[in-house]
Amino acid sequence: SSAECWIGFGCSFAVCDESDQALASFRAAQNKYAGSHVPLLYMGMEYLRTNHLSLAGHFLTSAQKTDASDPLCCNELGVWSYRRGDMEDAAFWFLKALRLHVEAELSALT
Questions:
Q1: What is the C-alpha to C-alpha distance for residues 56 and 59, in angstroms, rounded to an integer?
Q2: pTM of this prediction?
Q3: pLDDT one-digit tens code per residue, 72-108
Q4: I need a surface site. Which of 25, 76, 95, 97 has the fewest CB within 10 A?
Q5: How many other β-carbons are positioned within 10 Å of the β-carbon of residue 99?
Q6: 24-40 residue pLDDT tens
Q7: Three-state secondary structure along 1-32?
Q8: In angstroms, rounded to a whole number, what is the distance separating the alpha carbons of residues 55 and 37?
């Protein structure tokens, strides 16, 4: 769908260090993909990349609350916690991401 295209477009801007354009693309994806956690996750990842930790936390937490089963959300929350120096919280999120990933892999085999 066009939402995935906007996410890809935003990622290409992010890799070129064009954060404003990346965020605008992710916002466009959010408009097209209302109710999805994916645009929120990518906005959080972009804010994390640019070291805006408070905004990163807001968007990553919102994404995780929208879809608690996505291991990537938990992994990024682990990175966010690590970057803030909260090692206990980081370990919690990394272990949760690993558990969710393993559970998804096992359910795909059955």
A1: 5
A2: 0.92
A3: 999 999 999 999 999 999 999 999 999 999 999 989 9
A4: 95
A5: 12
A6: 999 999 999 888 999 99
A7: CHHHHHHHHHHHHHHCCCHHHHHHHHHHHHHH
A8: 15
